[in-house]
Amino acid sequence: MNTRTDSSTDFTPIDQDLYAKAFQLLDPDPTPEPAAPAASAAPAPVTSGLSAAPPVRRTGPVEKTLTDALALLDTHGWARFTLVHPEGARCSIGALRAAAGARNAAYCDAGNLLLDEARRQHGKKWETIPSWNDSHTGAQVRSVWEAAIRRAHHMNI
Q1: Contacts of 111 (CB under 8 A, 6+ apart)
Q2: Which of 34, 89, 117, 123 could form a disulfide with 79 if both were Cys (CB 3.0 to 4.6 A apart)?
Q3: Beta pairing partners, 78
Q4: In this predicted model, what pLDDT tens digit does every residue of 37-64 receive, in sequence order?
Q5: Global confidence as pTM
Q6: What's the CA gap between 132 and 141, in Å, rounded?
Q7: H helix intervals, the chain
Q8: What is the pLDDT of residues 101-139, one digit of tens each?
Q9: Under a CB-based contact definition with an 8 Å cutoff, are residues 119 and 144 in contact?
């Protein structure tokens, strides 16, 4: 078995504080509504039901699984030809499995979305994530991960 890690992967660590701040700016917490006034003789005004605060967008399970898996690749490194390298680097499917924690619906959907994006960028011949992962550079693999995360975000899954 040929086991090696690619030390020039173009994966850069994510600054979690900067990442959290960016999402805070994009999706601020809603402001709490004021407490209801005490009962009075005057009827309450009729409102349209629209609140002034924008709705809070929650990250879907597929987007979270993909984002967590990419963070694992950033932290531990990306590998080819092995699920998990003894030094901790992982291939794409190894990172996806670790991030999901189980072969649940989010894991399956994230894998399908990742493979679909790999086929969009690198041709329809790819049948599995490992075969695609092992045949591309770190930059190409990262591009697919990022596009899959964007798609999951826009699909709200």
Answers
A1: 93, 96, 129
A2: 89
A3: 90
A4: 555 455 555 544 555 566 556 789 999 9
A5: 0.65
A6: 9
A7: 16-26, 61-76, 92-100, 105-122, 129-134, 138-155
A8: 999 999 999 999 999 999 999 999 999 999 999 999 999
A9: no
